[in-house]
Amino acid sequence: MRFGLGLVGILVALAVVGVLAKKQLSAARVAVPAPLSAPSGGEGASHSVRDQGQQVQEQFRQQLDSALQQQQQRLDKEAQ
C-alpha cells in the first residue's frame, strides 16, 4: 500500500514536471535565421561575412524587442 502511494506520487510529480518543461520549451523557441550563401571571391567574401554578422545582430535585436514587448503586454494584462 505504501509502495503504491509512493509510486503514484512520483508519477504525478513527473507528469507535472513534464508539462511545465514542455510549456517552457515551446515558449522559448526562437526562429533560426536562414544561412546566407557567400559569393566567391576574396573581397566579396569578407564583405559578405560582415553583412551577415550585421544581419544576425539586427535579427537578434528585433527578436529581443519582440519578446520584451510580449512580456510587457502579458504583465499589463495580469495587472488589470
Characterise this structure.
This protein has helices spanning 2-27, 42-79. The chain has 80 residues and is mostly helical. The protein has two domains: 1-30; 42-80. The longest helix is centred in the C-terminal third of the chain and has 38 residues, at 42-79. The protein is elongated. The chain starts with a helix and ends with a helix. The model has no long low-confidence stretch (mean pLDDT 82).
The biggest beta sheet reads: none
Order of helices and strands: HH
How many H/I helices?
2
Derived from helix and strand composition plus strand pairing, the structural class reads: mainly alpha
Overall radius of gyration? 23 Å
The counted number of beta strands is: 0
Termini separation (Å)? 47 Å
Which spans have pLDDT < 50 for at least 5 consecutive residues?
A: none
Q: Overall 3D geometry? A: elongated
Strand content: under 5%
Task: Work out the count of structural domains.
Answer: 2
Overall mean pLDDT stands at 82
The helicity comes to over 70%
Task: Give me some keywords for this one.
single chain, 80 residues, mainly alpha, 2 domains, elongated
Summarize the structure.
The chain is mostly helical and 80 residues long.
Element layout with pairings:
Elements (H helix, E strand, L loop, with lengths): L1 H26 L14 H38 L1
